[in-house]
Amino acid sequence: MAEYLASIFGTEKDKVNCSFYFKIGACRHGDRCSRIHNKPTFSQTCLLQNLYVNPQNSAKSADGSHLVANVSDEEMQEHYDNFFEDVFVECEDKYGEIEEMNVCDNLGDHLVGNVYIKFRREEDAERAVNDLNNRWFGGRPVYAELSPVTDFREACCRQYEMGECTRSGFCNFMHLKPISRELRRYLYSRRKGKSIGGGRPHSRSRSPPKRGRSRSRERKGSRSPKHRSGRSGRY
């Protein structure tokens, strides 16, 4: 019996524990769910709830209805890349090596803007959660917790990856928002540079070919105070 219960734990056959929370670290029913959400006491993965605010989804009219923001695809990608780099670099430099970081592009309240950071060591994730719960980002408090998700292949929507998801942004599986190839190469090669020469490169160019300009320092200088209002330090 014990072996059977262990084999179905976190699956659809498990009538006690929530399979969605086990796979995705979030459930649309929240505290009202009829099944148990087993929050881990240790994990490699840290969840920052609703941290990323997509400009295309955040604009609202006076009656509270959503408006379509007039933001080009290029500006949208730059905004997202800047956010992703800020969070990734700060967390890796402060807490420890990151194996992967993912941001949800879903629209459901339980997934929208969720940031999942999988550290190499469990103790780094625990330290990040304890520290980040005392921080603010973009004028809002950060809500961090350890997440049971360590295999994002199981958490992601396969139909979305093939461009076939019919539930749009309200799917209950992760729709991960991709970063640019240049940024991915830079972020995941940082540890190699540190092990060889140490420190962060002083300049780099990730600009799209048609724009033909470096964003390495221009981006840093373009952060307006309102983007940092209510934040303690950088993060």
Automatic annotation (TrEMBL):
A single cellular component GO annotation: U2AF complex
Domain RRM span(s) in chain numbering: 49-149
Domain C3H1-type: 12-40, 151-178
Keywords: Metal-binding, mRNA processing, mRNA splicing, Nucleus, Repeat, RNA-binding, Zinc, Zinc-finger
Coiled coil: none
Localization terms from the record: Nucleus
Biased composition, class Basic residues, residue ranges: 201-235
CDD domains xref list: RRM_U2AF35
Protein family (similarity comment): Belongs to the splicing factor SR family.
N-terminal signal peptide: none
GO annotation, biological process: mRNA splicing, via spliceosome
Name of this protein: Splicing factor U2af 38 kDa subunit
Zinc finger (C3H1-type): 12-40, 151-178
Keyword Zinc: yes
Source species: Psylliodes chrysocephalus
UniProt-recorded Gene Ontology molecular function terms: RNA binding; zinc ion binding
